[in-house]
Write a structure and sequence with these properties.
Layout: E1 3-7, E2 10-13, E3 18-25, E4 34-39, E5 46-51, E6 58-60, E7 68-73, E8 78-83, E9 92-98, E10 101-102, E11 106-111
Parallel strand pairs: 2-11
Antiparallel strand pairs: 1-3, 3-8, 4-5, 4-9, 5-6, 7-8, 9-10, 9-11
């Protein structure tokens, strides 16, 4: 089945950490750059982080740079988003995308 499946979201206190995972199946994962977006209620979808197909280059939104880290394991067909120093404004549904696909998203809620 061709799909992306996110996991790892949850409820965390401000200052805490979470690691999101996105497992890919059904397409040549290592041929594609991957991205994490987030969608908060009433706000536009925001590109959070991107990684090239070999993991050699990454980019981050200004709002998360220095706190979030994107990485990938091509052997496991998985992309990760390590989130540290979480803030209430990081609360959103986090979605991964790549290869023309979108996952269903995973909810991250940060309490103050």
């Amino acid at each position: 089945q061709v799909q992306l499946v996110e996991s790892g979201g949850g409820l965390v206190q401000a200052g805490g950490s979470l690691t999101l995972s996105c497992a890919a199946s059904g397409f040549a994962f290592s041929n594609y750059g991957m991205n994490w977006y987030r969608q908060a209620p009433g706000k536009e979808r925001e590109l959070v982080a991107s990684i090239t197909r070999n993991g050699g280059s990454t980019r981050y939104a200004d709002s998360v740079r220095g706190r979030f880290t994107i990485s990938r394991d091509n052997a496991k067909r998985t992309v990760f988003l390590q989130m540290n120093g979480l803030k209430p404004e990081d609360t959103a549904v986090y979605l991964c995308t790549g290869g023309g696909l979108w996952g269903q998203g995973t909810q991250v809620t940060v309490s103050s």
